[in-house]
Amino acid sequence: MSAANLLDFDLDGLAAFCEQLGEKRFRATQLFRWIHQKGASDFEQMSDLAKSLRGKLQGVATLKPLPIISEHVSADGTIKWLFDVGAGNAVESVYIPEDDRATLCISSQAGCAVGCRFCSTGHQGFSRNLTTGEIIAQLWYAEHSLRKRLGQTERVISNVVMMGMGEPLQNYSAVMPALRMMLDDHGYGLSRRRVTVSTSGVVPMIERLKNDCPVALAVSLHAPNDLLRDELVPINRKYPIDELLSACSDYLSAAPRDFITFEYCMLDGVNDTDEHAHQLIDLVRGRISCKFNLIPFNPFPASGLHRSDNARVQAFARILADAGLITTVRKTRGDDIDAACGQLAGEVQDRTNAKGRMTRQPVVVTLIPGAAGRGTPPSN
Ligand code: SAH
Ligand code: SF4
Predict the structure, then answer these.
(1) Fewer CB within 10 Å of terminal CB in the chain, N or C?
(2) Confidence band (pLDDT; 50, 70, 90) for 61?
């Protein structure tokens, strides 16, 4: 039997695992804290953990970080990591520091089956679901390597958004324990309002999320009517806008915030006219408490789509705002390292095509070689 990856377990899971080893729950809690709060990767580092337990763990348990392929640091402080998930697949995480917060954007799948027209990950197709351990390993690595780098003992990452590669609600069973670990006071201790799941609209799973672990919810709307949304976000053919909005309204009864964030990617001549803005207003006003986040489209070659110009984005935002809808325009971060929304898969493909050579020149590139780059943050 292969050794269990302890990154796969939320606290209850770890307690069950320890119980099989004849250990009490408080031991599991100690172990959990060593892993997630202190970033330990080696049982021998866990000094206050009973020697007997450390002994039992050797051989039956392991802590498996994700091997790192590369790290890119943008001029604006954004950092993008490319992690190897095997069989030629890679996923990305992006760290976005701001004045009042530091957000980590993480991936839930290698590729994505939803196939949105404007999304590079969607064009890539679906490879596989990440495991819980692979999802949390992104946060584990980012948090503890940044603490070390910044010389900090306190928490660095204050917010997590599941807006990287993949559709989190199509990998529900792996995402759920990962969310619990983010929220757990013995883990990353993030509040529910600081953890956001972004979904293209997997309606039945929005309902489940509400019951199981209601974190902040962002919904990728991108179109004000079914005809257009069917084209841009194909899952709309299964769960059309009316059902989606009902699920969003229901979600609000449990949500940590009193609004749903609607993401809207601004595509030149496709969904960005005044008429589209008015349709959006008719769709949501009086029906659901929401905020709009307009995302300037990040182009990639195969999309055949173009970014709306700034004046258009501003005019669109103004129409929504004048109708009383809170509207923000997302700043693009990490543009110089292709870390912006929807660009995340682009480079993976570039790399594959170019046999590992980066085709675009980021500001700082660190290619971390093989075994030396085994994602293990130096312990504190
Ligand atoms: N699958 C989930 C989460 C990952 S995508 C979802 O679709 O919500 C995260 C966000 O990036 C979504 O709002 C998505 O629509 C947006 N996005 C995808 N491709 C983009 C692109 N090329 N430019 C701008 N935003 C994009
Ligand atoms: Fe998948 Fe989200 Fe990209 Fe659509 S936008 S293809 S759901 S990752």
Answers:
(1) N
(2) very high
